[in-house]
Amino acid sequence: MVAEATTMEDCLEYAKKCEPRQLYARFIHQPPEPLHPTVASWPFDAWELDSVGPITPKSSTGCIYILAATDYFSKWAKAVPLEEVKKETVVDFIRVNIIFRYGVPWYIITDNGRLFHNKSMDNYVRNSTSSNITLQCTT
């Protein structure tokens, strides 16, 4: 009986660690999705973009949003205050504050927001840069 109990416990432990079981088990036993680490081997190689807001109270200039970019390698941050965030503003921010100052990055990582994933952004990345920028979503 003791050998059976140990064997049963061993089988359960093995099943919990089995990769197919982790993929098809109930969600409580598995991570939300496979992780895709982003490795930046050089400064200004990969940037993360995010928008913050609306923030209250308004600033003295009437801005209630912040558009922020962080370099993955050096953790260098750049942020600008905005009255409203538009897709054209995001493209202009990338062009002026990232590409013109630090060069064309390999990756731009964003959340799945409409500000970052739209035709304006896709067209700019595809047509305006000489190298390929990869747009990645974190969610």
UniProtKB/TrEMBL annotation:
<dbReference type="InterPro" id="IPR036397">
    <property type="entry name" value="RNaseH_sf"/>
</dbReference>
<dbReference type="InterPro" id="IPR052160">
    <property type="entry name" value="Gypsy_RT_Integrase-like"/>
</dbReference>
<protein>
    <recommendedName>
        <fullName>Integrase catalytic domain-containing protein</fullName>
    </recommendedName>
</protein>
<dbReference type="GO" id="GO:0015074">
    <property type="term" value="P:DNA integration"/>
</dbReference>
<dbReference type="GO" id="GO:0003676">
    <property type="term" value="F:nucleic acid binding"/>
</dbReference>
<dbReference type="InterPro" id="IPR012337">
    <property type="entry name" value="RNaseH-like_sf"/>
</dbReference>
<feature type="domain" description="Integrase catalytic">
    <location>
        <begin position="39"/>
        <end position="139"/>
    </location>
</feature>
<dbReference type="InterPro" id="IPR001584">
    <property type="entry name" value="Integrase_cat-core"/>
</dbReference>
